[in-house]
Amino acid sequence: MKFPKKIRTYCPRCNTHTEHSVSIYKHGQRRTMAEGQRRYLRKQEGYGSKRKPEQKRLAKVNKRITLKITCSQCGYKRHILNERLKKVELVEVSR
Predict the structure, then answer these.
(1) For residue 24, which of 94, 93, 88, 91 has the smallest C-alpha distance?
(2) 24-79: per-residue pLDDT in tens?
(3) Most exposed residue of 39, 57, 71, 73, measured as fewest CB within 10 angstroms of its CB?
(4) Cα distance between residue 89 and residue 21, in whole Å
């Protein structure tokens, strides 16, 4: 799906419709010192196999894409949750 690089939408901080720049959200690296990650790594180590079996067939073939929009006036960032898409492409819109 093609999505414009700039959209005009409502900004809650400016309280008006402003131009927003669009980018695809990418999650950061997981914290290795977080309690859940430490617990996961502790269960993984040892001579046994993995704690959960690896999935052979995946039920879904596409991911839910999250778009990050940034207000050009105040710099307020927020996320837009999209439907399931195989491919997202950001394009310049010429008017």
Answers:
(1) 88
(2) 999 999 899 999 999 988 888 877 777 777 888 888 889 899 999 999 999 999 99
(3) 57
(4) 14
Contact in structure between 51 and 29 (CB atoms under 8 Å)? no
Distance CA 25, CA 28 (A): 10
Structural domain spans, the chain: 2-41+62-91
What is the CA 70 to chain-centroid distance, rounded? Answer: 14
Query: CA-CA distance, 60 to 85, in Å (whole number)?
Result: 11
More confident residue, 15 or 57: 15
Does 3.10.450.80 match the CATH number of domain 2-41+62-91? yes
pTM equals: 0.73
